[in-house]
Request: fold
Amino acid sequence: MVKLQEAIKLAVSAHDGQVDKAGMPYILHPMRVMLAVAKEAKTHPLAGYTLGELMIAAMLHDVVEDTQVTLKQIENTFGGVVALIVDALSHRSGEVYRAFILRAKENPAARLIKVADVLDNLSRIDSLPPEQQGIESRYRTALTVLNGTRELSLEIANEYKMKQQPEVGA
Ligand SMILES: [Mn+2]
Reply:
């Protein structure tokens, strides 16, 4: 797991100084996504991928999109499998959001990490200022596209919906 330590260090340094929309250190998000992916992959191993590859890719899932780190750098340090996953998780400039999600879905590891990513984003949505809560529909689109692949995502999405419903129209 030496490579995982390297991935954690790289993510910490790449996201240094960044905060999420609620003002929390950004690194907490990839950390949570990595832990959620590790938990899921330990109970339901994903054929063709090691636990280490999944955890490293989860840790690095936002660095290409949001920092100076390049796919080439990831490939050189962590190998082609991890680079392919991170590429599938990086929204390209000008790419239609739905097309991006469909592309992520094609890579089984990226699909698993994307579900964990979206669920973590949904879990934080209550802490967003009201004017930013419209982003919820984007996350819902993502879950709809990714759904049918992991019962976990359906369960949690339903739970979230039930929790939100009483507030609709309030
Ligand atoms: Mn993310």
In short: Residues 28-43 form the longest helix (16 residues).
